[in-house]
Write a structure and sequence with these properties.
With 247 residues, the protein is an alpha/beta fold. The protein is built from 12 helices and 8 strands. 39% of the residues are buried. Pfam families: Glyco_tran_WecG.
Length: 247
């Protein structure tokens, strides 16, 4: 299992792997070429809250080979607390790097799992439009039916991908990643949240400059307040309470 050296985020006490987009893609390329297993995840305040709340979620993240920084608050805490020379480029969401697989040398087959049938078709069409040599496979995952895991594993096995992207939302996607990892021989498995829906256009994709400014959450909240209000407005307070109560 490939594990890239990490840094501990002050105050939050979680480990992350600060990588730029091209650095992450290079690690994915090398793991796929050498058929080394690697789990790729991303940490933001939402995932940190789940890390403290759910033991199985924490176990998944502790086994991940690369946990990229997917939130400006984490980057800011490392800049201040560790005084390491990290730049805004070290904050990368899944939408920042997934398209890069299209041009990644040695990556020929990629499977996407997640979204409604319409959303799955949309992201497949988008990624195919990028050109390149990748043979993309898209499998819908919404609504998710746990009893279909063997059928889905069989479809992925037939495609024989080097990279599997699972965009199902936390913590479901991490649970599915573990279930599929035990059934398949896929070198790289990455959990990518809503990136597949966003790249396919079925969810709004924030202008990338807002991510660098730490304001992507505000864009997403404004566009989907009913679904995201609890995550962005209430969860940070719950996380603060957990941090104060920890030993």
């Amino acid at each position: 299992m490939t594990v890239i050296p990490s840094l501990n985020v002050p105050l939050l006490n979680v480990d992350v792997t600060p990588l730029r987009r091209e650095e992450l893609l290079a690690h994915i390329r090398d793991a796929a070429r050498e058929h080394r297993r690697m789990l790729v995840a991303g940490h933001n305040l939402h995932s940190v809250y789940l890390w403290y709340s759910l033991p199985e979620f924490r176990d998944f993240y502790d086994r991940a080979g690369a946990v990229v920084v997917d939130g400006m608050p984490l980057l800011a805490l490392m800049r201040i607390g560790l005084k390491v020379p990290l730049r805004t480029e070290h904050r990368i969401g899944s939408t920042d790097w997934v398209e890069g697989l299209a041009d990644l040398e040695g990556i020929d087959r990629v499977t996407l799992l997640g979204g409604t049938p319409a959303a799955s078709d949309a992201v497949l069409k988008h990624l195919r439009s990028l050109g390149g040599q990748v043979d993309w496979q898209a499998i819908p995952g919404d609504p998710w039916r746990a009893e279909n895991i063997e059928e889905i594993a069989g479809s992925i096995r037939d495609h024989d991908p080097q990279v599997l992207l699972i965009g199902m939302g936390m913590p479901l996607q991490e649970r599915i990643a573990d279930q599929l990892a035990s059934r398949l021989d896929v070198p790289v498995i990455a959990t990518v949240g809503g990136a597949l829906d966003q790249l396919g256009g079925t969810q709004s994709l924030a202008p990338r400059r807002l991510g660098a400014m730490g304001l992507e959450w505000a864009w997403r909240l404004a566009n989907d307040p009913r679904r995201l209000a609890g995550r962005y407005l209430l969860e940070p307070m719950k996380l603060a309470a957990l941090l104060m109560l920890r030993p």
